[in-house]
């Protein structure tokens, strides 16, 4: 793994024997079954798997939005949730970027980014706004800092959202299919900008996606999950050196890794599809 | 990456869609005057008035009465009646009385209704205690409260005020409650992850997130308020304590037998209602700048 070599890296996540059972109407639905995963500090960990397989459940448990039923999750050796404390406390050390974007529509991009430091009272309003302005400019969003999220393209909004997460200096970025429903061109720009952010910050990234090429291009490791209940089926180590750019996409090594992951995912996709058919029948 | 800076232009009309260089700073007025929608609106209004005039006058011209519309005085007669009473102080007093009642009742409903709705949305105990009686009282039409409120309140004016207040109150509360409850949970999660306190959540997330619903409720509530005030005024008559207003104006014109004047009153209310909702829309657009994108 080439992720943990950086200076003073923090943000190692240990997921140990985590099980999550939803019990909405007395029917137990097992979303995650005895799942274990060690994510090194500063690693980019990509998670792929069929729809509804429990990937997001895992992410929500790390973020503290959901409780877990069994097992434990640790961050840098400290328990987030586990026996006696099923639900992790939400905190700025684990920032989430959501699927369709969750910038506050009523604040300008600048105010969105400044929000974290202001509510945490780590900076004055003026300081926070100044820092937000700097960080947005760094991400190429200097011109649109005073615009509302509804006024900018989805690509800009998503980049601003990542800036909003980073200003809190998180140990872990949790991304839940952030680039879904974007066109290929925008997506590739997003990828390059995320890689650029990563090379600069070396923050641990837990990234859920459906897109295998995206997973291999961005990740240090790709975790292929089984269909529900989620377990790790296969781990693909991506030993393509960083920094990566679009030329990586055409390399032999890249194609080979995509093929390798594709087989594993395909198998699960068929299982998930057949399970769905059975449920309908 | 300057797509966001591009002129969004108008959705309709062909005048500027091709000109990418069109500066963004065109005055609203000149925009309105050059838009097809504006001119279609003008043509439609003129067409309506002409149709009305022709139908009303048909009997004078040909001896054949057009059903229903033939009984209505023509626009020319209405305008004549209007230009006559336009100079009467009493007519404008009616305007003033009705408008003052509408805004008093409406403001009270906002002042009480918005905090009440927000409390219902954010506090479970508050909801459990206050929502059931609220839901039982809500379906009662405001006008059904009239006799009871005449008994409750010492003066007619206060009865009208109370019924007006009720008309807007229930609508505003139900909109605020619904709006606050449908705020995207992701906003709350992000804010909480960043360390927002309950206070921050309320002022920076829940309140701005509810504003669109507050203004929807206000717009609907304003309409109901006009209805209720007018009905209240018709019932109360023009006595010494309370009464008067555009509702009474219509009623007394009817009793006096000048149908043209009744129509003047009706159109006056239409204009007053339109101005009120324009006012609400204006307030909405200045307090929600992020929605002023189109």
Question: What does the secondary structure layout of this molecule look like, with pairings?
Answer:
The complex is a heterodimer of chains A (281) and B (294).
Chain A: E1 13-22, E2 29-39, E3 44-48, H1 55-63, E4 70-75, E5 78-81, E6 94-97, H2 109-120, H3 125-138, H4 154-166, E7 172-176, H5 184-201, E8 204-209, H6 212-218, E9 221-225, E10 232-237, H7 252-280
Parallel strand pairs in A: 3-8, 3-9, 6-7, 7-8
Antiparallel strand pairs in A: 1-2, 1-4, 4-5, 9-10
Chain B: H1 28-34, H2 36-62, H3 75-85, H4 89-122, H5 124-137, H6 146-152, H7 156-181, H8 185-193, H9 198-236, H10 245-256, H11 259-287
Helix pairs in contact in B: 3-11, 4-5, 4-7, 4-9, 4-10, 6-7, 7-9, 9-10, 9-11, 10-11
Descriptive notes:
Chain A is of the alpha/beta class. Chain A contains 7 helices and 10 strands. In chain A, strand 7, helix 5 and strand 8 form a beta-alpha-beta unit. Chain B has 294 residues and is mainly alpha-helical. In chain B, helix 4 (89-122) runs antiparallel to helix 9 (198-236) and helix 9 runs parallel beside helix 10. In chain B, 30% of the residues are buried. The model of chain B is unreliable at 1-22 (pLDDT under 50). Classes of the chains: A alpha/beta (281), B mainly alpha (294). Chain A binds chain B through residues 63-65, 90-92, 94-96, 98, 102, 104-107, 115-116, 119-120, 140, 143-144, 147-153, 156, 168, and chain B through 1-5, 184, 186-187, 189-197, 200, 204-205, 208-209, 211, 288-291, 293.
Query: What share of residues of chain B is helical?
Result: over 70%
General form of chain A: globular
Please state the second-level CATH architecture of chain B: Orthogonal Bundle
Radius of gyration of chain A: 19 Å
Element string of chain B (H = helix, E = strand): HHHHHHHHHHH
Instruction: Write down how many β-strands of chain B occur, each being a DSSP E stretch of 2 or more residues.
Output: 0
Q: Gap between N and C termini of chain B, in Å?
A: 20 Å
What strand order characterises the main sheet of chain A?
6-7-8-3-9-10
Percent of residues of chain B in beta strands? under 5%
Q: Structural class given helices, strands, pairing of chain B?
A: mainly alpha
Q: Per the principal axes of the C-alpha atoms, what is the gross shape of chain B?
A: globular
What's the CATH H-level superfamily name of chain B? MetI-like
> What's the helix count of chain A?
7
The count of β-strands of chain A is 10
Q: How is the biggest beta sheet of chain B arranged?
A: none
The first-level CATH class of chain B is given as Mainly Alpha
Describe the largest sheet of chain A: 6 strands, mixed
